[in-house]
Design a protein that fits this description.
- By secondary structure, the chain is mainly α.
- Helix content is 47%, strand content 1%.
- It has a two-stranded antiparallel sheet with strand order 1-2.
- The longest helix is centred in the C-terminal third of the chain and has 25 residues.
Amino acid sequence: MNSKLRWFVVAMVALLALAGYSLAQAQASPASIAKGGKLYDKWWKVVPNAVEPKGDHPLWASQTTNTRTGPDTWRCKECHGWDYKGKDGAYGSGSHKTGFVGVYNAGAAKSKAELVAILKGSTNPKHDFSALIDSLADFLKEGLADDSKYINYQTKKPIGGNLEQGKQVFTSSCAPCHGADGTQLNFGSEKEPEYVGTIASDNPWEFLHKVMSGQPGAPMPSGFESGWAREKAVDVLTFAQTLPTGEEAPPTPAVLPKTGDTPLPYLPLAAAGGLALLTGVALLRWTRRIGS
């Protein structure tokens, strides 16, 4: 083997090894990606023996626009948004606004090793989430999506969703737990109910996140683990937005205005009865007059 051929073989072997390494780096399991999505949502419901945090996250004091306190301040989604874009996305305004950057760009541009370092606090010691590293890094690297392709940010309506396909998937996969109309499970309270339809209509980004990752602390299936493309979740979102939200006005009772103590529906009957009585009296008098 001449020297040129030898160097060519060595170069090819190196390239194949590098390609194999890169491929291995990109092959996180769907279960790990789904777990990372749940950690992003509410990590203390996922990490074994974790305790719900007390007080505010150390970084919370660096912003003043979001007035939430306590455990909510420790949720990744509260800073970076359900659409992963932070100040540049759906949480760029309103009561959830913090001004913090999103994670979408970092997930796309950085390696898993770099994401792990950030989660260990390399860029800011106060941003140390070492207990969440592996799966959360997998989610940030492989589970994020650009929701501007799937949701109209002004109308909150899905883009390109198939209503009929969404109905079929919801009926087979979601209805057994949530009910045919999505009201079997109430995530809110009796006075302020929150159903599948509520979340789908009010916060479609949260809806897609939970459909793909699952619900922390609950046996909800994950779209990642079920092999769903995000478009399938968008179909389900399209149908879910037709379901009750709990804010629908209740049917107006058929109570009609009253005149005195007599409801209006009975007035025609009363009038007819009175007319019949007067007619009878008149006929009686007339027959008596004739008889006399």
